[in-house]
Design brief:
The chain is an alpha/beta fold and 130 residues long. The chain is built from 6 helices and 3 strands, in the order ααβααβαβα. This is Response regulator.
């Protein structure tokens, strides 16, 4: 979770844990802090890199768009296995179109995160192991 709203991060973490959606959940209130974490997670195998990121658009300092620009500079072997989703309260059609125009962004979702969104992500984007 990358969102400057501490309450939203807490709620999202709770939903993710209650739905058994992820083994580990990390929240960052600043995009810069999240980028530092991601940089430290890059290794030759890319195994420590997150599988999924929820990113807010409007944040003080580095916003979601600036984050994506920096995210692109990370090694592809790490980012190729990661699904990046915009999760924002922004309802501006331009923001939604812009998010969907970035190849790194799998989908745009409006807040709040819900079990239905997680189910949609499971069905549409996550690799199935059989």
């Amino acid at each position: 979770m990358i969102d400057d709203d501490e309450v939203n991060n807490f709620v999202c973490e709770s939903i993710i844990r209650n739905e058994n959606f992820a083994e580990d959940v990390f929240s960052f209130q600043g995009a810069e802090e999240a980028l530092e974490f991601l940089k430290s997670s890059v290794e030759p195998s890319g195994e420590k890199f997150p599988d999924l990121i929820f990113l807010d658009i409007n944040m003080p300092g580095m916003d979601g768009w600036n984050f994506i620009e920096e995210y692109r500079k990370l090694p592809e072997h790490a980012t190729q296995k990661c699904s990046l989703f915009m999760l924002s309260s922004a309802v501006d059609r331009k923001d939604i179109q812009c998010a969907r125009s970035h190849k790194e962004v799998k989908e745009f979702f409006s807040k709040p995160l819900s079990p239905e969104i997680l189910e949609f992500i499971k069905e549409e984007f996550l690799v199935r192991v059989e």
